[in-house]
Structures are given as structure tokens and as C-alpha cells.
Design brief:
Blueprint lengths: L21 H23 L35 E7 L5 E7 L10 E5 L8 H6 L4 E3 L6 E3 L9 E5 L17 H18 L8 E6 L2 H14 L7 E2 L2 E2 L6 E7 L5 H13 L10 H24 L2 H21 L21 H6 L2 H7 L10 H8 L11 H9 L3 E7 L7 H10 L5 H5 L4 E5 L2 E9 L2 E6 L11 H8 L4 H8 L1
Parallel strand pairs: 3-6, 3-7, 7-10, 10-11, 11-14
Antiparallel strand pairs: 1-2, 2-6, 4-5, 8-9, 12-13, 13-14
GO cellular component, one term: fungal-type vacuole
EC number: 3.4.16.-
Organism: Cetraspora pellucida
Amino acid sequence: MEHSRLSRNSFSNFHLSSLHYYLAIIWLLSVVLLTDAAKIHKKHGPHNHSGRSLLNINLQTNNPRQNFSSSNLCDPNVKQYSGYIQTSDGANMFFWFFESRNSPLSSPLTLYLNGGPGCSSMIGLFQEVGPCRSQSNGNSTYTNPYSWNQVSNLLFVDQPIGAGFSYGTNYLTSTDQAASNLYEFLQKWFAIFTEYSTLNFHIFGESYAGHYIPILANLIVNKTSILNIACGLLPCQININLKSIGIGDGWIDPAIQYASLMDYATNNSYNPTLVSSDVLTNMNGAYPTCKNLLSQCDSTSTNQDCSNADDYCFDNVFLPFAENLNCSIYDVRASLYGQPEPPEDYMNYLNSSAVMKAIGAKTNYVECSENAYMSFTNTADLQVARSSLTQLSNVINGGIRTLLYFGDADANCNWIGGLNVAKSIPSKYQSQFNSKTLQNFKVNGQTAGQVQSSPYLSFVKILQAGHESIAVDIHALGKGLQNTSMVWSAQYLF
């Protein structure tokens, strides 16, 4: 979830945003996706598996779905599946899938990923975009009327191993490995759940997803997949109909986003003196060395060079900023200890024996795996040291609509860095994007944020939103957005 060493296990000062427009905006975009997906579905139909070289989808059994659970938990009114798919390296990857509440076979399919690295996507299910929330006692759930499965089929995957319910013996050490594993998972998943394999496919996520998503999407776009994934007797190769990606408050390029910490400290809407002038002077003094070390990391890609960059930039730029704030780094409107973390009763719910049995979970739930996290850290793979701008450029050049959205109250992965990242993506549309400017959009007569768009790339700054958010009344807000400039942006994007 949180970038660098600020994993969910490391800091306890994460705060909820109050009423805001974060998920409402993404919901509106999803509505546009739904309309587009319906057109695609009518053209091809749910069982036309064009682009597939697979002749037999059996995976070790004539009825592979019998290996999965189909409970009525969380959202009892939709078809759902959960369980494990094993990849070639022995990783047992847990998933929980929910059909759309409306016309599932003419709705898109959205893969939602949380970050860490090593944090479970059950966080996204129960605290962000999923069909249900946990009751305060952790014994049951209630329906989330604002879930993204109002308009899209939803797939949540715990990855890499160690996160959530996923398990195995070989911890991954890089985002590249994680992307390959997840690609293999998707190939096998689509081979089993064939009716969803031709739907428009979208990948959304937050924070460390700023690395997960571009690298996975790049694999899909370039078709540099594992060509001999075992699907029963024959290898499978299914064309994944990727249409868009979305990254919320993502940590994408360290050189750009470290610099943005100094900019945000004095140029935000909430507190122009987030840190003292002395701290800011020290950060500015350390940044040139940080930038040079990051350049060396990008040039050589050796673990040693990237570890050096990781250590120096964290200790001399990020840590002074994080440790000297008098507010939450994830939401500068909140005092450091004044608000609780998001309710985590869902963890009690998931670890109950009845729920684990119902969803086919074979190991206790781990929200964020320290082992998975440290495996990435030990190779300096963490996004602190490496950039995913190149992969984003390849994805955009490949015709995949890309959305970067940032809350204006998040200091950690702040909107200034996000906008500078968007301006720096070296795609063939870069000059067109940079020729545009941020434009206000309104909800119910009030400015809700700003948007800047060009072909295949849109940046959205959302007012009154922190690093993460929970759903509000997206129907009311979505209705308000229909009369704003956000509509043209959404239609243009998707």
C-alpha cells in the first residue's frame, strides 16, 4: 500500500479522508467503461475466444471449477468464486471474484491490486471498492452499495505470495517476477472462467501499484508472456483484452517524486509550513546526491547501486520529511494521532474458521507480509530506487488508456509529483499532454478537482482526498458529475 518502508506494518498514522469525491470520479469512469464494454460484448459474444491457441482448457481435472468455492458471503446476490491457482514456481495465489450486479456478461472485468509490496488485495475488497464491509464486531458483513461491482466484474488477487491468503515457499524478489506470476495467474484464470475472457479488462490499484500495474500491463501489451504455461495437456495463450489502467496515489518515479516532497511542503492547500525551513534546507541539500544515485541505479540496475540509492534517499530526503511532520503523511488534514486507522475488523472476519472454509482459504490471513516485503527490499526492488516510466510509456504507446489520480491531501505520494510524472512519461503523446493545463470540474456547484487529458493519458487531482479513501454516495455524486467537464474527460479517456 504505502511506498518504500512505510508499509502498513511500519507506520500506524494512516487516516481516513472525510467526505470526498475520490471513488465517485472513478465510478463515473467505470460507467463509461460499462457502456463501451456492452458494445464489445454484442459484437463478439461471451464465448468467442478469438486469439486463443488453447484447444482444451482442462487444468488437471475435467471440471476445474470444482477446485474453487462459490459461497454467498459478502455479496449473496451475485455469482462469485474464490480459491487458489498455482503458478509454475509453486506459488498458491488466492483470488476472490464477484460478478457485476448489473449485466455481468456485458460489463467489464476489473483487476484490483493493493500495494506494499506484500499487502493483500482483500484490503481493497473490504476497505475500498469491494461489495461489502465488515461489521464492527468482525462477525459478519453488510453490503457496500457503492462498490465498483455496480458496474464491473471484480477480481481481487493476493500477490505476491505471503500477502493475504496466498502462500508458497519461494518468496518473490522483484516486481518483474510478481508481474510474470500474475500474468500466468490470469492466463490460467481465463482458461477456467472462459465466459469472462473476452470482456474488456481493466487494471486498477494504488500506491505500490504504480509499479505492479505498468509492468504487468507492459507484459500484456507486448505479449511477452510465458508461452508454455501448463493448462492441462496443452499450453494456453489467451489474448487479454486490456483497455485501461488506473493508478491512485502511485509511487512511479522516485527522482521526480522525491523532489515533489519539497514542493508539496510549501505548495499545498492546507499548510504551507508542513516542515520547518531547516528541515527543508537539509532535504534540498541532500536531493542532488539522491538524484545522482537514482540515475546510477537506473543506468546499471545492479542491486548494490539501487540499494545505495534506496538507503541514501530514504534516510536523507524522505525520512526527515516524514519524521518532522506534525500531521499524517497520508492526509495532511489529519493530526498525527488524532484519527484512527481504517477499521480492521474485516481481519477478524477473514480469519474466522467458518469464513476461511467457505472461501477455500488454506492459511491464516496476513494483511501485509513482512517476509514478502523484505524479499523485495533485499534486492532494492522497491520503487524507492526504480522507475516505471518506461513501462508506462510503452503501455500508452500500445493504445492503453491510462489514468493517474491523486488526492490533494496526500503528502506521501502527492499530486505535484503525480502531475510531474504524467508530464514526464516519454510517450508519443507527451507533447500533446504537456500542451494542456489543469481544468476545474465541479460537483453540485462546487469545485471537486482538476483534470488534464490528452490521447491515452489523463491526470486527475481530487480535492479533499488523502492517500486512500472509502466510498461515499457515488450515485449522487456521479449524477452531479454528468453536468461537468469530467464527462468529456471520461468519455475521451475510455
